[in-house]
Protein: Protein transport protein SEC24-like isoform X2
Amino acid sequence: MAVRATVSRFPIDTDAREGSGLLWGVTVTPFAASDENGQSPAYGSGGDLLPRCENCWAYFNTYCELEQWSWSCSLCGNLNGLSSDAIERYSRPQSCAEMMSSFVDLELPPQEESDEAALEACPVYVAAIDLSSSEEFLELTKSALLAALEALAPGSLFGLATFSHKLGLYDVQGPIPVVKNVFIPPEAEGTLTIELEDVMPLLQFLAPVDTCKDRIASALETLRPTTSWERTTAAGQGLEGVLLGGRGFGVAMEALCGYLGSEYGNTFALARIFAFLSGPPDYGAGQLDTRRYGEQYASQRKDPDRALLPEQTPFYKDLAAVAVQAGVCVDVFAVTNEYTDLASLKFLSIESGGSLFLYTSTEDSTLPQDMYRMLSRPYAFGCVLRLRTSTEFKPGNSYGHFFPDPQYENVQHVICCDSYATYAYDFVFENNIGFSSKSDVPTLQIAFQYSVVVPPQELSNSGGVSTSRTKHHSLQRRLRIRTVQFGVAQNIHELYDSCDPEVVLSLLVHKVILASLEEGVREGRLLLQEWLVILAAQYNDAYKLVQYSNGNSIRSQLDVAFSQCPQLQSLPRLIFALLRNPLLRFHEEGVHPDYRIYLQCLFSALEPSSLHRAVYPVLTSYATPDKQAYPRHSLSRAALLTSGSPIFFLDAFTILIVFYSSTADQTLPFPPPHDCLLRTTINKLKKERCITPKLIFIRGGQDDASIFENFLIEEQDVDGSGLTSVMGFVSFLEDITQKVLEFMK
Structure:
């Protein structure tokens, strides 16, 4: 569980926080295998025996004062009694995890054991494939599912479903695959007239991967796109003879969620649906009107960047709530270059704990690699995340892909969480006093309760007697707790010196995404620039850099590059890069609304270092494929020319580019050989990443280098009106200087 704060020394009170201009908050990656310093938790059992504070319900931890019969809570100071069992346990401190480390991961006792519990522990996966699509789309989907079958743990159950103007369920457990179809009503309010359980019993639909892998593969081979003739017959002629589509995605998803989550609690511990879409749902309930994409400029009074960001129907948000109740997590893979309105569809994936992927073409799509990667890494499910703080402050807003508990404050539910998923919180003071007393130590406690599926071999290896039950997976419920203490900054210089710009960027990105969803992209951009202006003004004030004479400040003294504070120096570049990112670029610059939504979903789940790369890519240079020249360059053409290096490597998180300059020695091997340092670096980066980055090799002077040059943002105008007469980043700083002067006046 990695926890990173915007400032490692907290502001002393509200005045200090507001006077600094900095954001105050943390990012939390709860299922990360280690903390931000690479330390693993202390593992143990008896999570249910851990003492809790009677006042604030915080868990006992190493920062609590322990006496013979009692302990004082490190968050609220309350004195709590200890049970005789706890006194006995804590007399042997080396035997319990919570006495050894402030970061623990404890097993919780199992629920009642039965055959039903064994069935529950089987991981269930269902692929729902769009047949209103092309041959290329189906080929890509097949290869992605074949990769998925290789990654699935033994003992998993797999179901294959298809949708178009009808919903197809496959039984692959017999010698030849059998498909049963149900027609989807075309009306926007329609639902299926028959229960799927009556079409095919669930356990006939869900096949064990161990014994049926080949049969699933041969069923995939039978998939064909529905013909336009079939669709027209189903839909009837459209308006004035226009053919209606036949992609009944909404009804299919609704029916599958109901099918998997039976009436009486959940049939399985977790079911995951992989939904493969080749275009917008345009048939039956949940159909989306894509005409708004063409009409966004029609009403002149509306901001076109704002017009396409809100959802046009609550259908998919409501469906996500149904999925959550049924214990179903939905991953949406959209492979399309037409407007699909992901703004409406995204809720189904992000609110059910799934991911949203967008691939604009079938040709160079990384879908099979992403699928394999997603399924081979460990994940937790049925998670509850709770943040507690010491009494002087409290969480303000929380950000990330979770849904808040309807009853308890600061409790979030996450259906499915992998080791990369990151959430963010900002803080406010409870009162005007803040941390003014010397004894005040800002303390945070994050509790994360989750389940994991433990494969049979791990159970028999754990020293228990191997019984017939170990053939099954088993469910393990665990409790992970991290308690962190922070210092207090005694003045503004200490506060600035303890700043972590990557975490500041994370919180800013969350705030800007929310602002652009509510007010439009223009408003999001303004918010970002205003924040930088206020920060620069407060910094200049704090360092007494502005001299006033006759009420006019002397401009030449103004410092918007934060030259006296190394910790803040990267911020203007990060803000500039964020304004040049497709997340916040204007629609006129050719940013597709679906791509913007995809980036919103991706960026709001990334941990700070990854987000930093996605916003301001890392540019490195090499003298030869085996020898690095410089570890970091600014993203400008000037940096390329002055460095004189022949090879450049750009890591923009979703894309990796190796660029050989046009003046590079022709004897340098291109592309770089597989055993060189550059390739080793690339392979290591690809391995550590949550998505598969696209790898591109470019030879300057021969290949089209525009994709690489577009990342050299520092000469671009911040508003995207082409190359300016003055340099982009430089003129941006001049503009900020002007605004800071106005603000300070």
User: Anything to note?
Assistant: The first helix runs from residue 14 to 20. The domain at 123-232+243-376 is CATH 3.40.50.410 (Rossmann fold). Residues 236-243, 460-470 have pLDDT under 50 and may be disordered. The chain has 26 helices and 31 strands.
